[in-house]
Amino acid sequence: MKTHVLITIFIIVTMSCKSKKSTENTEKMVKENPVLISKGNLYGSGEEGIEKQNLVITNDDDWNELKKQMNSINNVSNGFLETEIDFSKYSIIAVFDDVKTSGGHSIELKMTTTSEHTIIKVISKSPEGLATSVMAQPYYIAKLEKTDLPIVFQ
What we know:
Elements: H1 2-28, E1 30-32, E2 35-42, E3 53-57, H2 60-70, E4 90-96, E5 106-113, E6 118-125, E7 137-145, E8 151-153
């Protein structure tokens, strides 16, 4: 009987400690929205030479090189909401998916900051129903305030 009571008390104490820790971590997380620069698709059938990747850009040279590569087939950067970035205040997040064999694919980003790092959750969306027969590569480019915290993609 004593053993059963001790086990029950141990389980209750253990579960309450986990719940408290989980609540503390949730309170420290701050959801933010990165500032959209552009999202859409590249239509060069992969000729731009951009692989599926997640980039953090922190300087003008890398930013200009990315724009040049994206514009190598079609002038994509003309549709950007912003092209001149103050890298002393901001960083750029650029996410590229694989080249798809149909249209209707897209990418969304969700950003959460904790005391330890910035988490960028990449959400790939597929078309529902019929889709166009076109080669397309989804991308999402956004800026966020410069931080010393590491950026982690999920």
